[in-house]
Specification:
heterodimer, A: alpha/beta, Rossmann fold, B: 13 helices, repeat (chain A)
Chain lengths: 507, 309
């Protein structure tokens, strides 16, 4: 059988970076093929070349035996290549049908299209109302829009970039059923994910990229997740060490925390209550957009609440702002690194000052002590292994993982008694992620109460003592992590958002 | 009659008074729907006013004057497009600079034309309709531009709502990264929207110097461009509401003149500032209504797009 797509020697360079070098592999019709690699391994560039968004410097592709070099995505779509994006591809203010029409070459008139959307979405068990505004949909529903958009064009090759990062375990199950149905119908799927267990469950073959080159290929079902990770990283990984920790008195407490989201599409908090003791780590799971950002803002002090809704060491601090809370020992690291955790165009030194000022005594009588600030910045860079040419470079010039290490390091180096982090290892490669998790565990061992908000379940199971989930702004009662099953976690996260019944119909 | 003001005349003259701001606001609406905030409307209008007048005087044809005005407005907007879309300059600063530049340049071009009268633009007499009592003088006694400006609103509304081109334009203004990822030419779409906005502002300006005043004086547009910008916000980026806004604000300016003539004791300044007060009130109301998503503003409004991501 001729392969569906053959990739032969693709290379692409950007100034200073070789994103892809002599990449070659092929996918058979109906095969589910995984593309594995750390951040910056060149996966995105590669799929952008296949989808016609980026032109290769060298190399050729063949689709069903014919030469294939799409100059733009519309040509790729015509030839039967469709892509579901990780972000950046839906329009909040447009409705479902309009969003679908934008991804098609020759969309039928709106009314006919709406009917087709209903038909196709039910056929694959992904029900959608074509008239709804995309901005009002849940993460899982938004993804359905993207998938249905692709399916309407009857693709031969479907590219999926990190499709499950925003889904609950049950929604992932439903997605996989859809993908298996597609694969059985002969559609090949190129699947990018960091979640190795998923790849082992779904994929027939895998190509592993490291620093833009193919370093291996394998049948994922025959490998363990650990082996796959080590092939990606190229070194042996050690899981974080979890020392026994003594629990102290309650350090952070939220009581019936109620507030509205500052973001019009955001979700407010409704009656959130929990307690974290010294030396304890509370993991907060949840699908994106269920109040995670708002929880961080409420705890850090960026959104105020009634005085006793948030307490640090028993003192009501709900009315205090971030600086006052820092003085009392609470540090926070939000999800968005550029523009929220760090000022993109300011140097690392300046960024160190911005949050470290109050607790490290870097400002005296309104004057900045630059010498001390530089020492502080250097200390973070050294202790947290931040790879940077110096402490005077702009924050935005660091890679995501390095900046994340800097941001987390900056907060943890302030000798905090309470730590709140949101998505601490989002978009960070495996080695840096392990270092960050270890740092959080070490801080808890030193007696801090830690709240880790994350969409990465494996991460939470690895570090958290207590596990809770946010769903629609409400938080479940924290339970000990040990002994939780995946089903229980899925239910805590809010199940499948109505997807299950839909699929029951279909089956 | 209303306090010495004839209502029929008032409505007829507000329709005329609204044409410049209606045209400019319609053009700006399209640019903003594509995600471009061009604060240079006033500058593009006045360049249109002076170039339209010069062309009409030399050619003797008002129609050629309007054509030249559209071309001049578009040409000036091209400067804005070059700076913001190619060199990624800040849109607010560039727009303000465009206005200042346009005011200065128009003064320079208009130096020999102060007080010169352009050839008159005829009124459209429609047999039967124009002679109707009351409705005749109100609706059917205008020049062709009054009707064209309303037609443009209808065209823009239909294109934005019903066509694929309109959908792509809205998509670009809503999320340029997504539009780019789907393979749409963000910069090209925005460039065209800016040019359309410039041409419409030029036409609006020419209406001031060729029909409404009609002659050249420095600063002839007198802030109409700013009102046009305010109308777009007032209309929450909806074409038919732009028409309502333009007639409302046009009405206020006519009323202000009439009240003065009728010897009313309201200081003129209150009426002169009222369009802006109304706009501020609308903005407050819009943002008070949560979930209204900032009053329907295009999400990418004023944000520059860079493809290398």
């Amino acid at each position: 059988m001729t392969p569906l797509i053959e990739i032969d020697g693709l290379s692409k360079s950007y100034p200073g970076v070789r994103a892809n070098e002599d990449v070659r592999f092929s996918i058979a019709p109906g095969e589910v093929h995984a593309l594995l690699g750390e951040n910056g391994a060149g996966k995105s560039t590669l799929v952008k070349m296949i989808y016609g968004l980026v032109r290769p410097d060298a190399g050729t592709m063949r689709l069903r035996g014919e030469p294939y070099a799409p100059p733009r995505p519309s040509v790729a779509r015509e030839r039967g290549v469709a892509m579901v994006f990780q972000h950046f591809s839906l329009f909040d203010a447009l409705d479902v049908a309009e969003n679908v029409a934008l991804g098609m070459e020759n969309p039928p008139p709106m009314r006919a299209l709406a009917k087709r959307i209903r038909e196709v979405s039910e056929e694959y068990g992904l029900p959608l109302d074509p008239a709804r505004l995309v901005g009002d949909l849940s993460a899982g529903e938004r993804q359905r829009v993207e998938i249905v958009r692709c399916l309407l064009q009857d693709p031969k090759l479907l590219i999926m970039d990190e499709p499950t990062s925003v889904l609950t375990p049950q929604e992932v199950e439903i997605l996989f059923r859809t993908l298996r149905q597609l694969s059985a119908e002969g559609t090949a799927i190129l699947y990018i994910s960091h979640k190795l267990e998923e790849i082992r469950a779904l994929c027939d073959g895998a190509t592993i990229l490291r620093r833009g080159r193919v370093v291996g290929s394998c049948a994922p079902r025959e490998k363990t997740a650990r082996e796959l990770a080590e092939m990606m990283v190229g070194q042996t990984l050690t899981p974080p060490a979890r020392a026994e920790r003594a629990r102290g008195p309650i350090a952070l407490e939220a009581a019936m925390l109620d507030l509205d989201s500052p973001n019009p599409f955001g979700v407010g908090l409704r009656g959130v209550s929990f307690q974290v003791r010294q030396g304890e780590i509370l993991g907060v799971a949840g699908v994106a957009g269920n109040g995670q950002d708002e929880l961080l803002l409420a705890l850090s002090g960026e959104i105020r609440s009634p005085t006793d809704a948030v307490r640090i060491d028993g003192h009501g601090v709900g009315h205090l702002g971030p600086v006052a809370r820092r003085r009392l020992g609470l540090v926070a690291a939000p999800e968005e690194r550029l523009g929220h955790a760090a000022a993109p165009d300011m140097s690392l030194t300046e960024n160190a000052l911005l949050s470290g000022g109050p607790r490290r005594g870097l400002v005296a009588r309104g004057l900045i002590d630059w010498a001390k600030t530089r020492i502080f910045a250097r200390e973070i860079v050294e202790q947290y292994d931040v790879r940077t040419p110096g402490i005077e470079v702009a924050a935005r010039s660091l890679s995501g993982g390095n900046l994340q290490k800097f941001v987390i390091g900056r907060e943890l180096s302030q000798d905090p008694s309470v730590v709140v982090v949101n998505q601490p290892t989002w978009g960070v490669d495996a080695a840096a992620a392990a270092a960050i998790r270890q740092a959080l565990l070490d801080r808890a061992a030193a007696g801090a109460a830690v709240v880790v908000i994350s969409q990465d379940l494996d991460e939470l199971l690895e570090v958290a003592d207590l596990f809770a989930a946010l769903n629609g702004g409400r938080m479940t009662k924290p339970r000990p992590t040990q002994g939780l099953t995946v089903d229980e976690i899925g239910l805590m996260m809010g199940g499948a958002h109505g997807m299950e019944e839909a699929h029951a119909h279909h089956a | 009659m209303l306090g010495g003001i004839n209502l029929a005349t008032l409505i007829a003259s507000l329709m005329v008074a609204a044409v410049p701001i209606l045209m400019a606001a319609t053009g700006e609406l399209v640019a903003e729907k594509a995600g471009v905030l061009n604060l240079g409307v006033e500058g593009m209008m006045i360049i249109g006013a002076v170039c339209g007048l010069v062309a009409a005087v030399h050619s003797g044809s008002p129609a050629l004057g309007f054509l030249a005005a559209a071309a001049a407005g578009a040409a000036l907007s091209l400067v804005f497009a070059l700076l913001t879309q190619v060199f990624l300059a800040n849109q607010v600063a560039t727009g303000l600079a465009l206005t200042l530049f346009g005011l200065g340049l128009s003064s320079l071009i208009g130096q020999g034309y102060v007080g010169v009268k352009p050839p008159p633009t005829g009124r459209l007499e429609i047999p039967g309709l124009s002679d109707m009592p009351v409705l005749g003088p109100i609706l059917f006694h205008h020049d062709v531009w009054v009707y064209l400006s309303i037609a443009m609103v209808a065209v823009v509304a239909a294109v934005l709502r019903r066509t694929r081109a309109g959908l792509i334009l809205r998509a670009v203004g809503e999320n340029h990264d997504a539009a780019h990822a789907l393979g749409y030419k963000v910069t090209r779409v925005r460039l065209l929207a800016i040019l359309f906005g410039g041409a419409m502002a030029g036409l609006g300006g020419a209406y001031v110097s060729l029909v409404r005043v009609p002659q050249w004086t420095d600063g002839i547009t007198a802030g109409a461009g700013w009102i046009a910008l305010a109308i777009v916000v007032f209309a929450s980026w909806k074409p038919w509401r732009v028409l309502i806004g333009a007639y409302l604000f046009g009405g206020i300016s006519v009323l202000q003149l009439n009240l003065q003539a009728a010897g009313a004791r309201i200081p003129v300044e209150y009426l002169a500032m009222s369009p802006y007060v109304v706009t501020i009130l609308v903005l407050v109301l819009i943002s008070a209504e949560r979930g209204g998503r900032g009053g329907n503003a295009p999400a990418a409004l004023g944000r520059n797009f860079h493809a290398a991501r």
